[in-house]
Structures are given as structure tokens and as C-alpha cells.
Fold each of these.
Amino acid sequence: MSNVTLQESSELVPTYKKKSQKAEVWRRFCRNKKAVVGLIMLCVLIFAAIFAQYIAPYDPIEQNLKNRLQKPSVEHIFGTDELGRDILSRVIYGSRISVSVGLIAVGIACLLGGFLGAIAGYYGGSLDNVIMRFMDIAMAIPSILLNIAIVSALGSGLQNMMIAIGISTMPRYCRIMRSSIMSVRDQEFVEASKAAGASDFFIITQHIIPNSMAPMIVQISMSVGTAILSCASLSFIGLGIEPPTPEWGAMLSTGRDFIRNSPHITTFPGAAIMFAIYAMNLIGDGLRDALDPKLKD
Amino acid sequence: MLKYIIRRVLMLIPVMLGVSLVVFTLMYITPGNPAEILLGEEGGSKEAIELLEEEMGLNDPYIVRFGRFIWNLVSKGDLGTCYATRQPVSQRIAQTFPNTLKLAGLSVGLAVVIGVVLGIVSAVKQYSIFDNVAMALAMLGTSMPNFWQGLLLMILFSIHLQWLPASGFSSFKHMILPAVTIGTSSAAVIARMTRSSMLEVIRQDYISTARAKGQSEIVVILRHALKNALIPIITTVGIRFGVMMGGAVLTESIFAIPGIGKMMVDAIKARNYPVVQGGVLVIALAFSVVNLIVDILYAFADPRLKSQYR
Amino acid sequence: MKTKVNRFITALLVMAMFFALTGCSGTPADDTNEPGTQGASTGEEIVSSKDTMTVAIDREPQSMDPTATNISITCTIVSQIFDTLLDFDPDMNIIPSLAESYEQIDDVTYKFNLRKGVKFHNGEELKASDVVFSLKRANEKPVSRAYTQEIDMEGFETPDDYTVIIRTKEPYAAFYQSLCVSRLSIVNEKATLEAENDVNSNPVGTGPFKFASWTAGDNVTIERNDDYWGETAKLKQVVFRIITEQSSRVVEIESGGVDAALVLPAVDYERLEDNEDIDLELYTSHYVRYIAFNTTQDSLADKRVRQALNYATDIDTIRDVLYTEKGAQKATTPVPPGIEGRHEDLAQYDYNPEKAKELLKEAGYDNDLEISFTYLGNTTNTLMGEMLQEQWKDVGVILTLNPLESGALTENANNMRQEVMPVRSAYSIGEAGEGLMKLFHSSNHGPGGSRVNYTNPRVDELLETAKVTMDENERNEMYREVQEIVHDEALMIYLCYEYTSVALGSKVRGFNPIPTERIDYSTIYFVE
């Protein structure tokens, strides 16, 4: 079979349908006020992460031991932490870590889980059985314990933390991908493509995945928040990222020892975490409504 | 149905074996020596470490150790002995697991009550102020890191108001704060699920029929709508409960609850291999059993599904 | 509330009547300058009927077997259940315990006369054979072994049931002190043999308290031994609750959920002191905190580099931030104050970045020295690392922070892979030689050592000679020389002698801590 036919077969029906679907979903998403608010919150976060060095009033790691544990003031809007560092600047810089942990950890989970799920769902049979039993195993171990064990094995640090969180959330993606693939697998346009002699890889990537994306997208938006929370949990256990990198979870967990005297040093990183998770949840909810045709009125 | 259950139970065996192998391997490649850790931060002498290693059987190769674990488990039902307390692992689990179960039951119960009520009202009054505010509040609970929320609750209710004890798990009063801490983070998910599931059902014809028959709104909502919206709710609650089988590590630490989560984290940190092994096995088993029960409950909630369980 | 006030008024009236009748000025029940009674004991107090004490402790005990204890909380609990032959009083004097009297017969032979009629918790009477059994057993156990090394295991003699003769392999200056550690507690031979693998669930000793229960992760409970040979304990029950989160321990003592809380964060000292319902006790303990340079690492083998890093560190500021001014004492030598043989005339390296830069240049570094700081990832250590990083940056040293969890950390340090590391070392028998040996003798590299892994034949020789020198002055002279050498070699940055903190409810009396970090709970009681 030549490339030309492959190209043609992919352009058959779905592309047109996909476009209109996307527009429809986007329209519905925008009608949902809460979802739009979430999107704006996320934009604020990403903006802060990209332009941290221009927005932050101070150097986030520069200490000023004479100015420790200052309450919020005009000079330091969020006050200063236990080493006299400006909390506002640390929160702003912290968005970089949280955004990247959220995206990369979820990216790992999504790619790995999605890939395995796609294979399992598409081929079925014993391959499916092996992969899914393996996922059952991974699911049966609580994710926080799995995180701790993986980080203990690999050593702490940002990179390993992202890998650990990624691996422990992977099974969920695998399952979702598998079940949506199984529902798409037998539909007509896939049959058509098969008949046209397209390779399995081509069919999976060009037809099946785009058509089973909806539940994945919802899951992604929801688990970014979970990843940020897991990151904070690991910091609490003492397996967080290397100091002095400002990271919300680490700020919160170090701050807990000071919470009785200087609650402000936990309030702001805590609020930042809530802000991020809230944003992702609003978006996730909005997407779910927008993607679910049953909720259309 | 019975056949289905038996098949599911049989399938647990390879999964449990897999869990053991994965955890065993993970712990094996993790740096750290339980003998050294047990000897404390000042450390013991080389001689002391060697003596302890011998006692713990750490000098045997990987495969011998794993084989011994499985053999003891299968032949004697023995999970091994905790390196630290020298109690049988099964005894340590028997001490901690009931606390975790209680905490799981209470917090999920609380989450269900809050979540389902909020969800129903939100669905019935869709797009009202109540709907928006309730959903927004519920979601706040999910977004808050548990250990922080726990500490704040503790400071408010134990120090300032002096209503509740700060930590421990010996009476019902002790259980309130931790249950609230965990429950609030699940409530939003359940509320959300209840709401959308109810919305779907409410639009169905038989609800209109019930209304038309002149039944009161409450009866319509609870008897007809909720009953049919139950399945997704059960799934969500089931997953939450299943996840709780692993304990709530952070909440248990903050409130000093002797639950299985904290035991596991301490054991991983101390490379207390027998406890990690045994603990994970029990957690995984509990998780799988909860899943199985949820699946069976489906059948009861929706008789149409029964035929699928063969 | 009202009844409490009423009871208080009644108590006052009763007291007033008592004074009026007897006409004598009331002597407070315990005015022996006990830390526990400060401030509150202005008049006679009425002993409360409350006889259960709940104590928040910071971690799970290691074991109930005395031979397996080397962290302070485990030692404390075990020492309530067991007794040793000799003991320390709160001023670290050696006092008789199970041995009623004792004498040294020659350089290596000691005779101990046991107290008669001492009953173990299982009803058995203490015999000389129990003592021999206990010491022999301790010699076989990994942790306690370090303290029996000097005892000649073949040299025991028991002329009768109440006399034990113990021989040391060679003259040993700190022999009496070494018998005071809880690791060498006397156990009951019969009970221990019957349940060798089960000592944790049924430890049988002679102490003022009996073991009641241990629920891992939750609590250890001990109960009064009514047949105790000494003065019976005032409390009926002590519950040690394991609360690993320090902020939760603080909340517990502040909310009145526990009667005492151990190991508290220094940031809270001030607030706890201001709290009328709480007495905060800070007392010296025999341990030192320092930042150790691993001298087996290339960069740190050079004395100039170590000195430079000492000069580059503003340790006073670091100490104040980590422990507050109230929480710790300035350290000038590895031997904490109150220990015989401490060198009193040494001073910390001053903070002098210029000199540090010079020394580094001399050593051949030009803003390109990279060092890693390896530590257990907790708040105190993290802050310490962050401050060091900032200070050393000023002299051109790049410090990378390498937080590890306990498992990886011990493995790292025992294999001498770390460079700079914060360490805490205890002097568990209150004697300079034992601690210095552990810290600086070349045989103690790696496991159990001080993490400086130092080798110096002169130091080795001094420490070995001192150990067998029975003359106190000669011995102390040698210890002082060791401290001088070590100081000049700049093996470590002395961080502080941290005070041990205990927060007590204001109704607790009779608190007598011993600097080895042990607390005797048998003297504690409550007042109304």
C-alpha cells in the first residue's frame, strides 16, 4: 500500500467530524462560567511561572536573618519566612515547580498509561490480560506508599518525584484508554481503515486515540491537582525536592513547625496549592460537562 | 453470580503474588540497611551491625529471601516478625488495621452524607445560588492539603475552642477531627458525582410520570430518582473506601493515629521489610475485596446488570 | 470550674488552719531546687489524687529489652522497668542501686554487695546469678556489647547469692560509670530464658514500674511496682503516647491532652513559657551537636579547608535561628559542660570570611570548591543547610544540599561517602573518654563513629592510655590534649550544646531529669 491511500483513508470521515466536535465542545465550555474562571486562574498560574523573575519583588532564595518571620506588611505583602525570605516571591517562583510537576508527572502517567492501555484495548487477548493484571497490581498498592517506595529507591529530588507520581497514577490512564479504545475499536471508520490496509500503529494513533480522547482529557485535568497534592505529601514525609528551591509543598511542610507563632508562613503556600487545584478542578468539571453529550440541554 | 465471585476471588491470587514481588523488589533495590537504621542515629559498631544482619537474615540472596517469605506465608500463614518490636507482623497489622477501618468508615460515611445531600440539592436546584455555592465549598475541601487542614482544625478545636481532643484514636471524640479532615476531601467528589448522576435521571420520562401521578417531590427525588442514580455514586464511594484501606498517611501522622498507613511509612523508612511486605499484602487484599463488594453491590442496585455477572 | 475554685479555697483554708495550729512556717514539700517546682511552689501544695500521667514522646521505642536501647526515649522507658547495679543521681554522682555497696579490690577486680530481698516483677528474688547472667547476655547483644567490652567474661565470681565479683580485662577508669547505662540493666535469668524472643512483650525487671503494654505506633504503658525495694513510685500508671509530629505534641500539651511532652521545637519555647498552665523545663544534657567534616574525602582532608569553613560560618546566628537563644548553649569543644575532663579554655573559631578566603586560596581553591551537605531531611537540618549555603557562598564555596531519608543516610555515612554532615553525639556515661573515643579514635571510622573519620596516631595513643589511667588528673590532662589537637585540626564546626526540652503541665511536681536524658518517673506526682 502506498502512502497516498493511507493519507486518504485518514481523511475519510472523522476529521471533519472532529473539527466540528472541537468547536462545539469549546463553545459549551465557554458557556460554563465556572470553567472559564478556572481557565483564567490557570492562565494566571502559567503566567506567574513563565514571568516569575519579572513579577517577583525579591530573590526567592536570598535570606535576611534579621528579618525573620515578619508578618505581612507593605514591604513584604505575604510576610517573610523562617529565614527572612520574601514569601510572595517564593510563592511566585513556586508556581514553576508546581506547574511543571503537574504537567510532567501527568504527562508521564498519560503517555505511559495511555500507550499500554491502547495496546491492551486494541489487541485484547492475552496481551490485554497481562497488561491489565499488571495494572491491577499497581492499583492495589496505595499510590502514596508507591510514591514513597519509588522515591526512596531512586533518591529524592524533583525529577524522581515526578517519575514516582507519574508511575503511581499511570494505571488509571491505562484503564480509561483501554475501555475507550474498546468502544471505538469496532466502529465503522476503523473497519474501513483496516480494510484499506492501514498499519495497527497508524490506526491507533490516527483514529482510535483522537476519538477516545475525551475521558482522558477529563482525567488529565483532574490529576494535575492530585499530582500537586502528592508533591506536597512527599515534602511532608521528608522526600521532597532539594532546598532551597521554592516549592509550595515544602514551604507548607517546613512552615508547619512555625504554625503556632507565625501562621502566615503556611497560609500563603497553602492558599497557592488550593488555588492551583481549584483551578484544575473547575476546568476538569467544565470539560466533563462540555464533552458529555448527555448533559447538553 | 456465585461463579462470578469465585472467579474474581481466584484471580486475586496472582495479583497478590505480583504485589508481593513488586514490593519486595522495590525494597530490595532501595538503598539502606535495616540493621543500621535500627541501631539509631548514633549508629552501632560494625560488629553490632553484622550481628543484627545475621539475625535478620539479610545476608541471604534475593531469591532465597523472597522464597522464604512466600513459603512461610503459604505453609504457615506466617507474615514474619517485625524487626523493630519483634512482634509477629500479623499482630502489628491486627493492631493497626481496625483503626484504619474505623477511620475509613467514619470519613467515607461523613463524605457520603455531605456529598449526597449537597449533590441532590444541587441537582434539584440546578444553577441556583445554592448549587454554585455548595459546589464551590465542597471543592475547597478537596483542594486543601490534608496535613495542613488537620493542623488548622486541631488548633481551632483543641486549643482555642477546647471542644475536642487533639490527637489519638481511643474514643469517638478522638475520631471526629481526623474523619472531618479526610471526609471533606472526598465529599466534593461524591457531591459532584451525585449531582451529575441525578441530573441525568431527573430528565427521564419515568420521573415526569411519577410527578404527574401527583407524588410529592421528596418521594419522587428519593424513591425514584436517587435509586436510579445510585450506581455511579456507589462506584465513587467504593473507590474512596478502597483507597482508604491503605490508610491516610498524613492524617494519621498529624493526629497520631496508630493506623496502617503510618505503620507502613515508618516501616518503609526503617526498611522494616517484613512489615512492608505483610502490610502491603493486607492493604492490597482489602482494596481488592472492597472492589469486589462494590461490583456485587452494582448488581443489587441495578438488577439489569445482574445478567452480566457470570 | 466552680468546683475547682471551691476546692482551691478549701485547700487554702485548711492550710491556714494548719499553720495557725502548729505555729511553724511551712516548708514546701520539695524545695530542693527542683526544676519542676519553680515559680509555683510558693506555699504548701496539696498532693492530687491524680495518679496517671500521660507523656507525649517523639518516636516509637526500639525495644523493651534493655540490651537493645540506645536512643534516649527507649532508655528512659526501660530504666523505669529495670534497675542497674549502680546509678547516676541528677548531678551525675554515682549512687548505689541494686548493689548496696561496692569496693575495688585491685586494679581489675571489683566486689559488689547486692541489696537483699529485691524482688523481680515475677516474684523471683534478685540473686548474684542474675547479675552474671545479665552481663553475659549483654555481651552477646549487638547494641549493649560496646559497654561490656572491658569486662572479663570469664572472671565472674559469686561467693554467695548476694555478692558478685566482676573483673575487667585491664584497668578501666570509667568502669563504675559504664555500669550505670540502661543497656546493662539486670534482668531476671529465669524469665528471660523462658521468653528470650519475647522480652518485648514481657520484660521482667526490678524497677519502680512494671511493664503493662506496648501498642506499636500508639503507646507504651507502665504501672507502679508496689513491691519496689526503694521508695515506691507516686504515680500508679504512666502512659507514653507516641506522637511523632512535633507540632502535634505542642498542640497536645497546650490543649492539656497530655501531662508532659518531650522534644519540642525551639520556636515554641517562648510561647510555652508564657503559658501559665505549662512549665517548660530546659536542662543540659550530655550531648553535642556539630557539623562534621569527613576527613577521608579529598577536599576535606586539607586542614586549611576545614579551618576556612569554620571561619566562613557565622555559627552564632545559625544557632540562634535553629535553637533560639533559650534553647542551646554555645559550644567550644566536643565535650559538653558538666563532664569531667572537658577543656574549658577553648574558643570557637570566629566568623571571619576574609581569613576563610585566604586559607582557601592557600589550599589552592579559587571560588571553585564544591561540597555537599548530606542530612536527614527535617526542618532543622534543612534550615541549617540553607544558611550554610548562603554563608559559604560569600567565600566562594558552593554547597549543594543533599537531603536523605534515614535509610539512605545511614548507609551513606556508614560507608563514609558523605562530605559535610550534621551530627549529634551523646556521652552516655557522662565521661569524656567514652565519647572522645567514639568520635576521634581511628578504629571508629564508619559505623557508630563521629562521621569525621579522623586518623591521628597521637590522638589514638592518648585515648588508649587515658582509658587505663586510674589517676583522674593525669587522665583529664590527656583528654584536654586530645581536645586541643582536634580543635586545631578543625574537624568539625561546633554547633551547640542543645538543652533538652520537656513541657510539663503546671500541676506536675517532682521532676528530676538526669543529664543522660533519662527522666525518673517514680518521683513525679501531681498537685491540686
Amino acid sequence: MRHIEIAKVGYEYAGTAGPVTALREVTVDVATSEFLCLVGRSGCGKTTLLNLVAGFLSPTRGEIRISGRIVTGHGLDRGVVFQDFAQLFPWRTAQRNVEFGLEMRGAGAAERTETARRFLRLVDLERFAGAYPHELSGGMQQRVAIARALAYNPAVLLMDEPFAALDALTRDEMQRLLVDVWAETRKTVLYVTHNVAEAVYLADRVIVLSPHPGTVVADVRVALPRPRDPLSLAFLEYQRTIVGHLGGRG
Amino acid sequence: MVALVWQTVVMLGVMPARLFPGVDRVVATFGRLVGNGVLPTHALATLARLAVGFALGAIVGVTLGIVMGRSRWAEDVLLPLVSVGNPIPGLAYAPLFVIWFGLGNLPAVLLVGFAAAFPVAVNTWTGVRAVKPIWIRSAIAMGAGERQIFRKVVLPGALPAVMTGLRLGLARAWRVLVAVEMLTSVPLGLGWLIFGAREFLATDVMLAGIAVIGLVGLGLEKLVFEPLERLTVVRWGMLAR
């Protein structure tokens, strides 16, 4: 079933030297519970595309539908995780950060506490429920952000390079955790990254975007069983294919 | 250390003892004036004036700062006024306030509020402007409306700067108050006590009054602001300590 439909979407903005086309004729369908990675070099418009789906921006051409309804703005059917650790509210504990979306939805105190606890447990941070963000490591903060984006039960999870600012070891750990969380919650995930290995590790499908203007150049289905072994030949073969589409040298 | 140097100067007899009392005499006078209730009475009168004036200034300052931070139009109109007014010492307006509001408590309290409002407004404005866009974005993504964003993101996000503003405002209020008490002939107050003591060359009383002013200022910092900050911005890691 098609959950997210991105149909012939274009996005233009006013640059210093006239209008700039960030995206042109982008068409992507995402199935329910599918994990889709958007991969591309900097400036290929992958974050713009994510922001369009999130409703932070509106497409200048084409349309985006989620569950059949045209996206006109933000909505509680989507959760967003950004790259910046600062996305958490420093004046709230981990627990109260996770409760925020439930609070906005008008959930009662008991439900909020219970639900937030459950999602903190999901990202393995129950012990740190009472900690403030500045007392947590970068990886822990991003886990809180994931729990926060999931807690009000959106059907879609949008992630913009959430692990890009982490060290390599923590990043590996976080990727494993994310696959587990995804397997358990069955959300439809749209995940932006410039890291090819990360995309192959995480995704059911990898969409490769090329810059100036951003267009889809490849749609690669990763048919590897999970958990995936990043050192296997098949894994490296997928990486090679995608790097080829990116026009890189490897 | 200061007391030691002071006492040496007194013993050398550089200044007449009457104008430059020894530490022992100041301490004795301090004890006597606290014992007979003179200092506490004056200090309380001053503190009451400070509380009312500062509360006024804080409310006006925070409101102005928020309005300036939230509305482009208000920023264009008010910010130049506040920026020009901020560096002017509050005491410069004292004669004007006396002409407008007469003598006594009213001009003193109003001037204190007026002087305190400027740093509070400027810092609140900075704080509101400095609220991170990513907090707002996260809140929007989680379904927060305008009012919720304001109450649950902008206000706490601006708090560190607001605290700085309140602290500066209080310091300014305290300074202007003691001085203005000398000018507006209030019936009781530390400023008045010091000013009145001049008539009798009672330098020991003056110094005792000054000591109280210092102690109260220190007390406000240690007993009001530090605990408040420890409970909020320091705990949140929003203020480097």
C-alpha cells in the first residue's frame, strides 16, 4: 500500500542571482512500513524534500500525499528527528521532552507519563528519564529525540541525518537500535543521509538524488536480510552500485 | 584586609577621628543601631520601596521585551527608545520625577521601576530573539500552536537572558533607590539615614548605613538570584557556571 506519494514535485526558491530550482520532477512512492533512504551529495535537495514532506515547506510544483491526503502543513501524522542535538528542549528532562507531543495532543498526565516511559524504554534510556539533555551524551540525546518523535504515535517518521554528528562507534550502535525500533513500531521511515553504507544498512529502498537541480537518478531495492553485515560481499556490492549512481569514485 | 588598612590610617591620625571613625566605632555604632531598631526600620522601608519599584520595572520590562521580540512593528518603534534610554543613569531623571510626582515615596518608587525596566526590557528582547529556531520547528512538528509555542518554548527558552536582565535591573534599582532617597525627602530609608547623618557629622552612622546597603545587595544576589538560577537555567545547562 502506498503511504507517501511524492508526485512530480518541484521546489524553487529566490536566490541572490535569481530563482534557484532545488528539486525538479521528483516522483517517489513510499509503501506503508517501508524504510526509505534519500541519498545524495550536499546540495542535492534531499533535506528540502524531507522538509516538503514534513510540511515545513510547500512544493512549488506537483503535490505530496500522505495516506491519500495532500500535505498542506505539519501534522501529528509525522514525527521529525533532526541532526542537531539542540533539538531537545534543555529546560525539560528526557521524560518531559518525550511527553511534549502528547501534551500538545491534550493527553492526560497519567497517559503521558506511561507512554513516555514506554518509548524511553524502547530506546533503552529508561534510567535517564529524569536527566536533562545537557547531562546526556550526543547519542543519548538523539535517542531521546527519536523517542520524542515516536511517542505521539505518528505513522511516518522523518529523519534528517540524525546520526551524522556522532562518532563512528556510536553511529553503528544507533543504526542497530534504529532498525530494532523500526522493526518493533513498523513506522514508515523517510531517512536522509549522505552516508552510503548507512543507507544500505538501514533501508528497504535507497533513492539516489543528483544535484542542480535535485532529481531522482536511481531507485535501488536493498534485498538483504536483517541484521545486515556491512562486511559481506553483497553489502559492498550494493554500496558500489549506489556510489556508481552518485557518480563518485568510491 | 580593608579593615586593617582602614584602622592603620585612623591610628596614624591623617584625618580627624570625627570624620574618619575607627573600625571599632563603626562596628559599635552598627551594633547599637541594629539593637535599637533604627537600621532595621530604615532598611525595611528601603526594601519595601525596592520591592514595589522593582516589581513594577520587572513587569513593564519583561512585557516590553516580549512585545519587541515578537512583533517586528513594536521592535521598530520601541527598540530605538529603549536603546537610547538604557545607558542614561536613572538618577538623571530624579529632579524631573520630583517635579512631576512631588516628594516622598511615589517618585522614588516610580523612578526605581523606570530605571530597572530598561535592562530588563533589553535582555528579555535579546532572549526572545535568541530562542533557537530548531526548538520552534520541533514544537511545530509535534503539533504545537502559536500560544503553546509561546508558553512552552519561547518563555523558557528566553529565561536565561530574562534572568540576566532581572539581575542587572535589580542592581540598577538598588543603586538609584539609595540615591533617590536622598533627594525626595522620604520619611525613612537607608539613603535618607546616610544623608541625614551628614548634618551631624555622624560618619559612623553613614558608614554603618553603607555597610547595610552592601549586605542587602549581597543578600539579594546570594539568597534570591543564585537559588533561582540553580533551580532553572543552571540545572538546564543553559548557563555556564
